[in-house]
Amino acid sequence: MPSISTDKGSIYYETHGQGHPLVLIAGLGASRLFWWKQVAPLSQHLRVVILDNRGIGDSMRVGAPFTIADMADDVAALIRALDLGPSYITGISMGGFIAATLTVRHPALVEKLVLTSTSAGGAAHQPPSNDILMMLGSANGSDVASYTRKIYTAIAGPGYMQAHPEDMDLIVRNALEKPLIADTYLYQLDAINGYAGFGKSGVTGQLAQISAPTLVIHGDSDPLVPYANGQYLAAHIPGARMRTYSGVGHIPPIEAADRFNNDILGFIQA
Predict the structure, then answer these.
(1) pTM of the model
(2) What is the mean pLDDT of each run of 10 residues along the chain (270 residues)?
(3) Which domains does the chain show, CATH number per domain?
(4) DSSP letter string, 184-198
């Protein structure tokens, strides 16, 4: 299996297609399989690189806490190991935390940046409701399929999963194929809290340093990372553009895949 070694283990990746590299970074608890609606269409135009974040999927299991910055450094190590050069970077949710942090820490590796359903963290972060937060913290001891259905139904736009059971079934199948280790999930939650929690800074104070052309994509019905977070990013990253997805929740790559893919291509090929 293709993987690259870091000082903390190994990171699994796949590449699809030819051309300029586009690295896709998934969010909390998700493996590379999250991008099933992107790989085929985008790899017709680009070299699409998908990876399993630290401790997820086929990446090496971890036995100690880590940070968003650690995961950003993992992506930097992957880009360097594959000799990709400056790449297009897309991250969703926690993957957006990673993408933004990568851009701040390793600016020479990022040619264009797409931030989806994500936040600058720190004082600027607008949290979800307490009900959503409690749900995220209740994974331990839960049946994987039931918990996955519960979470994705809650974070998608109103009625989406009920109207698209085939998507829900595939999300569950992916979760069962690449089961999440409980410790890794907790490490990811801690990393998120270290980025977005009260008294933390995230990249809020560094957004003005981002010089890579940036596109912000956010659903205005996102219950997990509320829409105001995307607005803040677009307003504070120099020259950033924003695409608002009306009625869409936290997962535009799934809920509005055709539009998402077209927006990605239109932005990076401009």
Answers:
(1) 0.96
(2) 82 97 97 98 98 95 94 97 97 98 98 98 92 78 84 96 97 92 92 83 92 98 98 98 98 98 95
(3) 3-268 (3.40.50.1820)
(4) HHHHHHHHHHHHHST
